[in-house]
Design goal:
Layout: E1 2-5, H1 22-31, H2 35-46, H3 67-76, E2 79-83, E3 104-109, E4 112-117, E5 120-123, E6 135-141
Parallel strand pairs: 1-5
Antiparallel strand pairs: 2-6, 3-4, 3-6, 4-5
Length: 145
């Protein structure tokens, strides 16, 4: 899979390179939204999270977002979740150009979210593990009709 270095526009607002903002970058790269707009949107959703024994702190766009918050943000933007794996099924789809559909996808892999556009990976590093990284599912833009 061809790799395209893409920060989603982070450098316009922040200087640090080593941050865990993959959710923000993936959404910005896939939607074309401004990085800061996505950053603020994620943080506004995070304010509504409830803390529990498992959630000791709230999500933050700069250093990690819980899966349920990711789902709410992206689906509210008009994207649909397509699971590629279920409990006990094993890995069925890999982060590989031959196993993903054409178009723009926001892809969920282990502890990471990334963007694939027309079978090209848009991220700050090549997270494909040479095409062997398992895809848990991906979001696609819902077509209005």
């Amino acid at each position: 899979m061809e790799f395209v270095y893409a920060t989603g526009g982070r450098e316009k607002y922040f200087k640090a390179d080593e941050v865990d903002d993959c959710v923000c970058r993936a959404i910005a790269n896939a939607t074309g939204m401004d990085y800061k707009e996505v950053y603020d949107l994620i943080n506004s959703y995070a304010k509504r999270e409830h803390l529990s024994k498992r959630k000791k702190h709230k999500s933050y766009a700069r250093n990690g977002v819980y899966k349920d918050t990711i789902y709410r943000v992206i689906t509210d933007l008009g994207w649909k979740w397509i699971p590629t794996m279920s409990i006990g099924s094993g890995c069925q789809v890999h982060l590989n150009e031959n196993e993903l559909p054409n178009g723009t996808l926001i892809v969920s892999v282990s502890k990471h979210l990334t963007c694939v556009k027309d079978k090209k990976l848009y991220d700050t590093y090549d997270c494909t593990r040479a095409g062997t990284r398992c895809v848990y599912g991906y979001y696609v833009k819902e077509v209005e009709g």
